[in-house]
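Late entry, zinc ion complex.
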Amino acid sequence: MITEEELDELIICKKCHTLHKKVPLSKRKKAFCSKCDTLLYQDNSNMIDTTLALVIAAAISLFIAFKFTIVTIDIKGLEKSLTIYALFMVILEQHQYIVGVMFIFLIFIFPITIILSMLILLILMKLKKGGYLVQRLLILLAHIRPWSMVDIFFISLLVAMVKLFDYAYIELGVSFIALIFTLILDIIITKNISFYELWDLHTKIYGRVDE
Ligand SMILES: [Zn+2]
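Prediction complete; structure with ligand written out below:
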């Protein structure tokens, strides 16, 4: 019988399914398949610090997005600057409830939940505390991550704007740029972390969790 600990030391190549024994890697080194040269795993000792820095940047960027003007509209010579919140109220006033619901989920609930969970998760992992909470947050993130699809986020924003302002002159504000910046950071964060490696780190920091 092979034990779970022994199983953890083995890794299978995603491409050619060759079984390899894992060896500890030095900083920034990667392990490749000896048969087909596919990346097997990489040193993840910097992953928490790098991701934490990116998540903090994303949090600041999202804060700016919520605080400042997203669009300035000109209706019959009257200029009106709207924040995301004011834009949301306009969407409701126009009875665009479906757009409103999408707006709430894609611009408020998902980004805030993801960024806050990541922030708490990474800080706890860095402090090597709260193993149970970290485990719950990892599961939560694995569930909601696929929903924070960048393209839907963006398309819904554009749809909302076109629907509202097809009659008016629009100028995009600081908040819009901050939102785009948050999206770019989100793409980089997603590229930078792998949940497989986070679980691996979780096991290294807190030990094996028996469920
Ligand atoms: Zn291979």
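The pocket of zinc ion is lined by residues 13, 15-16, 18, 33, 35-36, 38 (CB under 6 Å). Will revisit in the morning.
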